[in-house]
Prior knowledge:
Layout: E1 3-12, E2 15-27, E3 47-50, E4 56-60, H1 66-71, H2 73-78, E5 93-97, E6 103-109, E7 117-118, E8 137-144, E9 151-158, E10 164-174, E11 178-179, E12 184-185, E13 190-194, E14 204-210, E15 215-225, E16 232-235, E17 255-263
Parallel strand pairs: 1-4, 10-16, 13-15
Antiparallel strand pairs: 1-2, 3-4, 3-5, 5-6, 6-7, 8-9, 9-10, 10-17, 11-12, 13-16, 14-15, 14-17
Amino acid sequence: MKNLKKTVAKMMAGVLLVTMVPSAAYADSPAGEEEVYMPTWMEAGSVIVYDEDLNCTIVEGGELDAGDIARRDDIAEVGLKSRDEEMLASPNTKVEYDSHGFIQNVYYLVPGTEDEYQLSGAFRARKGSGVMAAGTSYTYGSYKNYDTGKTQSCKLTRSKDGKTMTGTGRITYYTGENGEAGSHKLVAYDCATKMDYDDVKGGTVVTAKNTYANKSQKYKKYDVGSLPAAILDIWSSSNVNPIKDITTRGNIDNVYSGHISHDVVLY
């Protein structure tokens, strides 16, 4: 079992000293289990990194203390930890947490680099196998809807004829320079769909809606990610934030009452 480790970094005489502090409260896996699970909640804006052996280091933010957890109704409703397969940690990944401290994005280390990450893994299913079968649906990623106050899950559904995909749930945003495992330069209104379930052909137009605020926008799928608690991830940068077109208050935030639809175009 590997415990989550908190990193405290100090610059002293030009040398970076790193102290690793284990935390029993955030144990990655229960006793007797070899699987390592990502934390569902951290401090807002936290970033953690897993190495090739699934050792975990907190590089920004930190763990929530017992008092924080006790005061949070959203944590009580969603649960502090999840043993869902969506939350299994992968080697050489970086995990980001949103403004509520809920898991946001999982990035994969770019092959041949030590500190560059991208949303899509280097290897993934293609030629139809990256899209779930016609007439099936997949429910995952329980989260708190901060618009309605309810707890709900993400759900993707492929039509019986296999021609369309729809989804309901959380829509998030992410950063990075290249999509499609490095083969596409990301630009405004590009987006990522869910790996292994909705990996349709690059360039597919996705209509995304905020059903709570009655806002919609069209994006183009040019990336893919694990999306452990989201149905769509919209690319953003320091000065370009297309998700604001559909957020409830028009600011940089996630969409909690999201709906997506698009044609299923296979590679």
